[in-house]
TrEMBL record:
The record marks D127 as: Important for catalytic activity, responsible for pKa modulation of the active site Glu and correct orientation of both the proton donor and substrate. This is Glycosyl hydrolase family 43. SUPFAM superfamilies: Arabinanase/levansucrase/invertase. CDD domains: GH43_Bt1873-like (cd08981). GO terms for molecular function: hydrolase activity, hydrolyzing O-glycosyl compounds. Belongs to the glycosyl hydrolase 43 family. GO terms for biological process: carbohydrate metabolic process. Pathway: Glycan metabolism; L-arabinan degradation. It comes from Cohnella lupini. Pfam families: Glyco_hydro_43 (PF04616).
Amino acid sequence: MLSLSQIQLRDPFVLKQESEGCYYLYGSTDPDIWKAKGIGFDAYRSRDLTLWEGPFPAFRPDSDFWSDKNYWAPEVHEYKGKYYMFATFKADGVCRGTQILVADGPLGPFRPHSDGPVTPRDWECLDGTLWIDAEGTPWIVFCHEWVQIKNGTVCALRLSPELDRAVGEPILLFSAQDAEWVDSVKNGAGYVTDGPYAYGCDNGELLLLWSSFRQGRYAQGIARSKSGDILGPWVQEPAPIFENDGGHGMIFRTFEGKIMLALHAPNNTPDERPVFIELSEANGRLSVREG
């Protein structure tokens, strides 16, 4: 059994399984996700969020898999009786993008479901997440990366009911510079958008977590939909909810009903670790719970 401090992992995502009474933890688990050849994604399992079994090999590419590097940010969503992994991949000469994988159980093995990335093939994209709207329509929310367009954006794209392809054209939700707290990276080279995750509040408001950089440190921001719909318009909170060199967060509820923010910190490899922070929610507003 492992503690969180023993698990090197970026971009944490927690799946709560009511039927099993346990949690599954996913993330970017390769020791070097930046330059080394991609290995795959590991998963961990826990009943108390403190001690974790694993790692379990949730995804390993077949020999003919199109991507060989940048295996990033896997999320696993239960949908219509199966488990779907949204994950980012790249290869030389091929744009980074989010592909959808599928498995019969939360530990996999996950296999390609979509035919390559569902994000636009000529865009550098990353960090796709699933959102099901009030009409039951599935969407992928993802980032159009700053390395291609300088001012990174967050976009939404309809998916087929089978989650195997995109439907229509991507829709711009907002850009990094829409948030007053965001600073540029690499001496003005660009403005980052990372890790979107949609969260529906108890009062019906819709929030979108996303990450960027503030004063040189990774930070976790929040945007708010004025319409309550994934298409917004989106208004940025004036300050991050977490700015101590951590981010790429998501929110889950414990079996006891606590609201938890999962993110990684610090942001440097190989020191990154999954971190859970209890939140309070009041009238559609999130804050770090004191005490």
